[in-house]
Amino acid sequence: MIDFRSDNSCPPSPELLDALAPVLRHGHSPYATDEITQRVERRFCEIFDRDLRFFPLFSGTAANALALTQLAPRFAEVICHRDSHINLDECGAVEFQSGTRLLPVGGTGGRITPDTLPPLHDSRDPHRMRPAVLSLSQCTELGTAYRTADIRVLTDPARAAGLGVHMDGTRFANALATTGSTPADLSWRAGVDILCLGATKSGATGAEAVLIFNPDQATGFDRLMKRAGHLASRLWFLSAQIDAWLENDLWLRLAAHSNAMASQLAGLMRAAGHTPLYPVEANMLFFAASAGQSEALSQAGFAHYLIARSDGQTAIRLVTSHATTGADIERLAAVLPGILGHDDKALQTAAAI
C-alpha cells in the first residue's frame, strides 16, 4: 500500500533522526529552560529577522488553541475560514481553551478574502461577542497558499480595528517553497502576531513551534502551557527535533520535495484529462470522486481520504510528503485516471470480472 492519506502518515526524515540521536544520549534542563530550546529561539530570531519568543509544543491543535487563548480575550470571536483546521478538525479546542467562539467565513480555495471579512468594529453591546482575532491557515486545508499581498489586505483592516492575527502554519514551510517569500515577509511583516509553525508534517517525529513575534505579548504563555498540561519536563526533546529540522535548511528542502511531488502528480493528471479541484500550491491535491471510485483506488493499493466538500459532493484527497518518491507518483498516475474515468457501476462490473 502506498500512503497518500497525509503527511502525518510518513516516517520522520532520516536526516533529522540521524541528527537527533546523539542529543538523546544526554540529559538537559527541564521545562524548556534547556540550552537547546534557547539555541532554537536564537535561530528563529535570525531566520525571521527579529526578536521573538519560541515555545515548543507537541501538537498543532495545542499550539493553535494556546496561541489563540493568548491573543483573544474572553467573550471574543476568532474569525477563521469555514474549512480551516481549527474550525473542522480540532474538536472545539479553541473554544474550550480560550472561552472564545469561532466565526467561520467563506472565501475561494480555502482562503479568506476581503469581501468575506465580517464587520470588524468593536461592539459595545454586552449582549454580543466582538471579533478579536483573525486566524489564517498557511497553507490552507485545500492546498492553496497566501501570498504576502493576500495576507496584507486582510491584516491591515484587522489590525486597524484592533484585532490580533494568528497564523496556523502547519504547512508554512510548504508556503515558503511555493511563494519564494522570506519567513519574515510571509509572517510578521505581513501583520501576523503569532505563528504556529508546524514541523510534524514536514519531517519531525512530532514537534510544533509557537512563535510570538512581540516578546511582550508572550507574558504568561508558559503558564498557559502548564495549565493545559503542555509544559512537559522534556520539552528539549521537541526543541532538539526543531533544531535538527532547521539545520542546513532541511525544513525548506523537505517542503520543496513534498511540493515537487504534488506538482508532478498534478501535471500527469492534467495530461490525462483530470484537473485538480483547487490550485496545487503545496503538497495536497483534490479530485472529484465518488465513494465507489475511492474504494477502487484503495483496492488498487493507494491509501487516501475521501472527504466531503462544502457543496455536498465528495473528493479524493491526496497528500505527498518528504518521503514520496517519483516512482510512487508514476504508479498512482498510471491508475487514478482510469478510476476517475469510470462511474461506480462500471467499476463494480470490472471488479466482478
Structural class: alpha/beta
Largest sheet: 7 strands, mixed
CATH architecture of the largest domain: 3-Layer(aba) Sandwich
As for the CATH topology of the largest domain, it is Aspartate Aminotransferase, domain 2
Question: How many structural domains in the coordinates?
Answer: 2
Q: What is the strand tally? A: 12
**Helical fraction:** 25-40%
The CATH class assignment of the largest domain is Alpha Beta
How would you write the strand order of the largest sheet? Answer: 2-8-7-6-5-3-4
Strand content: 15-25%
Could you state the order of secondary-structure elements as H and E? Answer: EHHEHEHHEEHEHEEHHHEHEEEHH
Distance between the termini: 23 Å
CATH superfamily of the largest domain: Type I PLP-dependent aspartate aminotransferase-like (Major domain)
Average pLDDT score? 95
CA radius of gyration: 21 Å
How would you sum up this structure, described in words?
With 353 residues, the chain is of the alpha/beta class. It folds into two domains: 14-248, Aspartate Aminotransferase, domain 2 (3-Layer(aba) Sandwich); 251-352, Aspartate Aminotransferase, domain 1 (Alpha-Beta Complex), CATH 3.90.1150.10. 39% of the residues lie in helices and 17% in strands. The protein has a seven-stranded mixed sheet with strand order 2-8-7-6-5-3-4, with helices on both faces. Strands 9-12-11 form a three-stranded antiparallel sheet. The longest helix has 22 residues, at 250-271. The radius of gyration is 21 Å and the shape is globular. The model has no long low-confidence stretch (mean pLDDT 95).
